[in-house]
Amino acid sequence: MKFAVIQFPGSNCDQDCLAALNGIPGLRAEYVWHKETLVDGFDAIVLPGGFSYGDYLRCGAIARFSPIMKSVVNAARSGTLVIGVCNGFQILCEIGLLPGALVRNRSLHFVCDMVTTRVEVGDSLFTHGCGQGRLLRMPVAHGEGCFFADEVTLRQLNERRQVILRYATADGRITPEANPNGSIENIAGICNREGNVFGLMPHPDRACEARLGSADGAKIFQSMMETIEAGRARAA
Amino acid sequence: MPADPAVTPELVAKHGLMPEEFERIKKILGRDPNFTELGIFSVMWSEHCSYKNSRRELKKFPTSGPNILVKAGEENAGVVDIGDGWAVAFKIESHNHPSAIEPFQGAATGVGGIIRDIFTMGARPEFLLNSLRFGPITEFRRPDTGNGKEKDLSAIPNPKSEIQNNRRLFTGVVSGIAHYGNCIGIPTIGGEIYFDESFEGNPLINVFCLGVLRHEQLARGAASGVGNPVFYVGAETGRDGLAGAAFASRELTEESREDRPAVQVGDPFKEKLLLEACLELLATDAVAGIQDMGAAGLTCSTCETASRGGTGVEIDLAKVPKREPGMTPYEILLSESQERMLIIAKRGRENIVREVFEKWDVPCAEIGRVTDDGMMRVRNNGTLVAEIPAKPLADEAPLYSREARKPTADFADDTDGSWNQKISAPSAVESLRMLLRDPSIASKNWVYRQYDHMVRTGTVVLPGSDAAVFRVREANKILAATTDCNSLYCRLGPREGGRIAVAEAARNLTCSGATPLAVTDNLNFGNPYKPENFWQLREAVEGVAETCRAFGTPVVGGNVSLYNESPASVVDPTPTVAMVGLIDDEAHITTQFFKAEGDAIILVGEIGDEMGASHFLKVCHGRKEGLPPRLDVERELAVQNSVRELIRAGLVKSAHDCSEGGLAVALAESCFNPDGRFGAEIEIASTLEDYAILFNESQSRIVISCAADDAEKVMTILRSKNIPHSLLGSVAIKTLCIKTAAAELSWPIDDLYDDWFHAIRRAVETDSEPVPSL
Questions:
Q1: CB-based contact (8 Å) between B449 and chain A?
Q2: Do residue A108 and residue B771 have CB atoms under 8 angstroms apart?
Q3: Domain at A2-235: CATH code
Q4: DSSP symbol at B626
Q5: So which residues of B are the catalytic ones?
Q6: Torsion of Cα atoms, B630 then B691 then B703 then B708, to 10°
């Protein structure tokens, strides 16, 4: 199974993503340079974290115009799994594949810490291997990770079960103290209406080894692999 | 373009050159220099670039060893073998003066500069540390500088405006480091931060970077191969940072703000592209030499590469990518615009260079070639504007031995216990809380939460333990690194302070399970023309040097920052020691935190009794006085070797060294396990006073914990090596309880933790409105 890791100028978690994915049995990951125009022959696409184009404007605002993004959008529309982590999430929001926006952390500071998230949708294409209510520990590292959406969008996200992860306390409660950035309703990760595009601020790529503090992130990538397997089985 | 000014004695003096230095320049050239050449000499012969006042002292450092691949001074950074064909390149550098004027950009460009020094060597930068010092950010008891016994020791708060300014510098520097390091994607995983009034107006910003490379990837900064093309790559040259090296070699004055144009502006995104492009290019066979443009910019990189290569270099400034029109040769040559490199390509492979930089959208221009006549020759659109023999310019700056004189002020006033007689003296219980609240000792989480300390997925021990521990993915090696210096010790006894800086760095590595490998140091001192300052420098250097010899840890490079003075004072002398070690086996990684209730707590080393230069006297009694503790190097080595041996035998569950605040602070910090706090039940049989038992800072002491069943085994091993030790008690929950002959002291651990964990946030966020909740 083959995942593409898109490299934008200023991506800085591309190498971490590649190493984490290649550490999962049965998975192979390759870079795709942002100046390419085709992302073909991959089972899933990863938009890694970092500071694409320096993020001197809004985070992800320039990366969405990279040549490769047209192909990423087409792949997403045709049902390919796309996951955006951190800066990748920001790019997905900027290009309109995901609703809402990520704004400056409420503390006004960059925040790097290990956080706990609660799986809100246990049967999504990205989390069905985790189970409803399961707690995943993953690091966050961002200055603009405060998720915001207007009232209507927020209601739709909840009704359509698009809120996949929320920040939670170590015992699974959704409280203001557990929220590292001020995200509305503690939202840490959402998917699109079709369910095949997933954006999240926490880094599953940094949580694939117990010696780094958590291996919970691997469960998300493994869920993606199972989704792809099941799709292949159906097609066959 | 305006005509260049005539070179007059006044202009020479304005460039910071002494009349005898000017004579030397004339002798080298065989004529008078023109304006551009004068500028070139002034930056190359500044202290920052030439080390003219410190080089003779630096020669005292041990620099060679079996693992050393590139020695100090040979290249941009030292390189040390770590086995299996892998090596580390690392270096520490200061950005003190720019940060005093413009904290955000000053600190940010400090980070950018040290990262370039590392990837210039062909190494991929893996992590950063920083060693920072600021004026106080909380109201404090102004220490008496004399013996001060008669004076009232009640708090004399310093002016609010100074505290505000110190906070501005502190938060600005932290934001600057975060901005640059986070964006470029190199984790900042450790270091140290101190607050003391001597740093008011002149903060110390020392940044360390380490990179990893295969032996065969090692790149050299020499212009080799006559006829080879010289490429300029990276950001365009602007007027920012003009003559910054010369600026850094002056004292800070009230007028220093006018030097703000000497502070550069950093662009971490450009540096990220430059980093990736350079490493991609170095993996090809197209490069003969590479050198970053740091201090003294294009000037330094051209004459140094020529000097190292034993060649000459000829460039044409018209071909240099520029940010603005109308720049004079003087400005182009002396600009310290950031994110630029000089590359000597192999003839015939120019296209490879162009292709790589085009892929990364980084400006790239061929600006000259390597010649065989040993000259640095600079043209502007064909017209000759400077012609200087490269080697004398780069390597033959005058060297001075400045006058050294021991200060007359009697810092060495021995502490006679009079502090203890004051009725207002805080109790032992309150003293520990004061120490844990002191921003120098308190948790630095407010700072490191703003640094991405997990990118590159190698941070095995998160910030907050004795040393940073990092697993290098591509090499499968585990490294430990730390920076240490107790400036208060160095003020009161610079030689002992220098010795202890090395011993403590090694002790921190030992506590993490590592074997020390090598050192890079950053010497931060005052104006060397003042004999007292030079005496401190010499004493500290000799202390560092002899202790590095004893530990077998050569100095592979570093930086000297002199003139660290503000109108108010000179900084306490600070020879920052950054040490790198290797952990052989993942199982040996050890942290400072207690792991389980009931584990035995053992102090390796003596209970100690030295109160001089202690943080207890400074923080609780407002006194910076007494002689620093004495270091017995033999004892220190024996303690560290035995703890390392115990760790390797799998007997040690936690290890933490005793430093600022003594045993009581070390015990409290060991209780603050981020995964769940513990307490401790301690009993100490000693005839000393409680204060002395709890807070003395005698050296060579490590608090370890082990399974209760292993305690006898551990102590048997220590006895067999004649290492003094005592069984202090056991790990408990909820309360730190210390029973002495005179008293039974106890602290709820949650209260201590609250003091310690939130002290810095409370200090810097008191003045701002709380953020409203939604």
A1: yes
A2: yes
A3: 3.40.50.880
A4: S
A5: 48, 95
A6: 140
